[in-house]
User: Fold these one by one.
Assistant:
Number 1:
Amino acid sequence: MKTTAHLDRQSQLLLAVNGLIVLAGALSGTFLNVYLWKSKQDYTMIGWFTVAQQVAVGLTFWLGGKWVKEYNKMNTLRVGIVLSGLFYLLVLWVGSDVVRFIWPLGILLGISIGLFWVAFNVVYFEVTDRENRDLFNGWVGLLGSFTGIVGPWFSGTLITWLKGDKGYRLIFTISLVIYAICVVLSFFLKKREKGSSYHWMEPITQLRSKGSPWRLMSLGLVAQGIREGVFAFLISLLVFVATKQEARLGQFTLITSAISLLTYWLAGKWYKPKFRSPGMLVGALLLWIVIIPLLWKTSYGTLLILGIGSSLFMPLYILPMISSGFDLMGTSDETVDKRVELVVLRELSLMVGRLAGTFIFIIVLMVSKTPLTITILMLILGASPILSWVFIRKLLQGGRSA
């Protein structure tokens, strides 16, 4: 990184908005599924909530892409933040009846996430450049890891201390206030220039084109999403079910996030492009191996092995996935001009994978909900990162993601 790299005021403001959004998610998002579980102990219900959320995220990326490219992307970002706050306001309002509104609440949360991130990804591309993008990403990673360490631990301790729903209501209220602060900060970000016309069918065009590298990239992203769709909510839920304590879940997240902070820093410092293909394969295999101890017993100890192992090996797998996708967006002036559509294609591919994994989870648990069934299902779905490597290894070896 060059010593001349620095972040201007706009980059700093966007970084602050990102940090606060991640903080709000770390405070409340970790315990949202636990809150739903305590209202109704049903894995399938959590699965349907995830389905509603993911469908809304993908469709919002696709529909919102037109507004982001052709109109005011800053308003899209603000609406996403406002809807996130509205989601937690509604959760506070309905209280213990939240399980009766799984679908509308899941859709609302998905829309808010989709609007914010489709705008953020494009604004991030515009307020940074080649000289300071690594510096910006470094700060994003640092803030994300720090909030991931402190946020869930603080929430878990507070919820345990206050007992009952009081702790949850306080944490959700704090998140609501943070979203309000984000909206205020967003008005200090400058209005961005409009882009060219939005091509609705560009994702389909890329997938139908025989020479497009996005055909392989999309398959890799679908495979990535299969694991993400289930593990994103299941791990924290299993920790709570095994311990019956929010504080232990907060402790679990603190430990795993602290390790992630170190491993992502090391990977960013030493992970060279020539190591991406073998490194991704090794990471994918190790992410699968750390699930095996759950075959003996689903306890806090075996889940901690899974969590620590995932924190150690995830950078080896996920960094090549991220790099290869975003680097394909900058291979020519044409792809740069279509960056919004390609961001949408990337998210739609992930959505398909997440939905596929979640549907498999729901169908299997409708037949059997034993701990062994869940563990075997995790082993099957947890092998999907290996498929990601199989699909994109040619892109990595061909230097497209350099």
Note: The domain at 9-187 is CATH 1.20.1250.20 (Growth Hormone; Chain: A;).
Number 2:
Amino acid sequence: MIVLLTSGSVILALVISIFLMRLKLRKKTLAPNQNLLPMATFERASFYELRQITNGFSESNLLGSGSFGSVYKGIRENGMVWAIKVFDLQLEGAFKSFDRECEVLSCLRHRNLTRVITACSSLDFKALVLEYMPNGSLEKWLHVNRHVLSIRQRLGIMIDVACGLEYLHYGYSMPIVHCDLKPSNILLDEDMVGHICDFGIAKLLGDGESVVQTKTLATFGYIAPEYGLEGLISTSSDVYSFGIILMETFTKRKPKDEMFTEELNLRRWIQECSPDSVIQVIDADLFHPEDKTVQRKIKCISSILQLSLSCTTDAPEERINMKEVLGALQKIKLQFIKDITP
């Protein structure tokens, strides 16, 4: 259970809500799964320690900023490295976002979801201590870092994310919709394994619910049409976002790239490309003139892009689900390894 270090009715209510949620979610017996992690033993952390190990939450320790706060790197005396997400309580929705992340993350245990270590909360300070990811975000690897991810690495990361989403959607009797999946919310550990992070606007679907309505909007370009127009979210909304990320990962084009207009978007650009000219949309960094396996690589990425189109149909009922997406990606990976192995 997350350790909250201050007293008071607000904190007590938060503790009780987390405890009740964990009890509710544990009612369902989970099938054995190699991706599940043992329930974590949460450590203690005080505001003073967090301030000390981040040098007073200095800019030199800043890892990144999000909708409701900033994330800092902190190194403890024992050498352990933490990622400390400090919520900006001046922002509307920050309190709710903190409560939601505590509620969701305290219940989840999967190798492809960012692990929560503890939380620190008072009336004027709220922070989550998370597992540190030394290789940063997928967004940085695609658009900032000079190093190029190989096809196999990109495919592996996408399978990691699909595993995490499949767990969110089907791991409990109460499905969880992430609602804001995008490359900056996919973090990479020291082994380049992908982890989904930032559950600040996640939604838990109640008994019998498959669709809920929300007023909270996520990042444009990645949200499904029914989410952006009507505020309707479901597990299919996450599938749509995942499909857009698949496209971006293998074309290196953001959905809001300047080349796209009202008449042309990322999905349509890929859809209108014939099988014979698919190389025109694929990230050029993935190919080299001397490479004898170019055609096999094109075949692999073409299959991935076709899958991404199945994830991003306008009508949510026509989209495939994450179990199907994960199975398809695993088959593509096996075929790719077979094709390029001498």
Note: Residues 1-16, 22-32, 37-41 have pLDDT under 50 and may be disordered.
